[in-house]
Specification:
single chain, about 350 residues, alpha/beta, Rossmann fold, Hypothetical protein af1432, 2 domains, five-stranded parallel β-sheet, 15 helices, 5 strands
Amino acid sequence: MARRFKILIVDDAPKNIQVVANLLGDTEYDLSYATSGHRALELIELNRFDLVLLDVMMPGMNGYDVCKKIKKDGFCGDLPVIFITAKTDEESLIEAFNAGAQDYVTKPFNSAELMARIKTHLKLKAFEDSQQVVIDNALAELKVLNQEIIETQKEVIFTMGSIGETRSKETGLHVKRVAEYSRLLARLSGLEEYEANLIAMASPMHDIGKVGIPDAILNKKGKLNAGEFEVMKKHVTIGYDMLKHSERPILRTAATIALEHHEKWDGSGYPKGLNGNEIHIYGRITALADVFDALGSDRCYKKAWVDEDIFALLKEQKGKHFDPSLIDMFFSNIEDFFSIRTQYRDSSSGT
């Protein structure tokens, strides 16, 4: 079925509207009418017209002002306008096109010429609409593909982070819990949703540098000696060096986290001995998320701590190991952290 175009005829003289309406007929077009500029704008706001046939000399609001309103950004800027007017001087013609009109026909008009111009502009409008549909569909497909790329990046990052944890025989869902704890802390810290999600996606890579640490040190039962601890500390720079060359936001964030998640608020951490706000907020957030989960998990060198002991240590390390404001946020929202821990509990342990 052929498309029926919707045309708005605007003229303060009803007899002029009737002349144009009779010419167009009612078989091919859906016609609407307005005898003032204000009424025309009301109809345009409520309907999706394909063309406006517009008089210039109208009381209250002339055709030029109506056209400018139509073409205003956010209104109906793509709606074609043909002026039909008795004004034949060159200045009026120029003003019409400056107002945004697509065409200009003077009265008395030639019926065949007017119909030819109307059909031409309707064909152009139909073509532009069809192209917009193609563009919209392409953008929708691109959005889906972009989301697939992001999901693939997240999956790769999570898998790589899990490799580091598996080598050190740490709990299977440790990286997932750290990601969700980090997302929650980021939101509580006032970071935008984009950054909170970025931290959550990147934090699983915080210990990726452990792939470069010998098994004898990584999985030693009991406390490391001084020399072994110096080797273990290298995992932060190994991880950073693996990730620092990427221009991708996720991997750049992961590089920062890998390097700084063992820095401490009082400057006693490593590798640089940064203190306070010198430590990137990403590192401060992941540090707390990582320690909270690690203490509550079984490791080769220790059994999981009970919550009372974990909380006592976190409070004692406020302003020492951890950002004081993050500790306050943690305890003010402890039930949300418990909810995450329950959701991602390891099936093989009590964590």
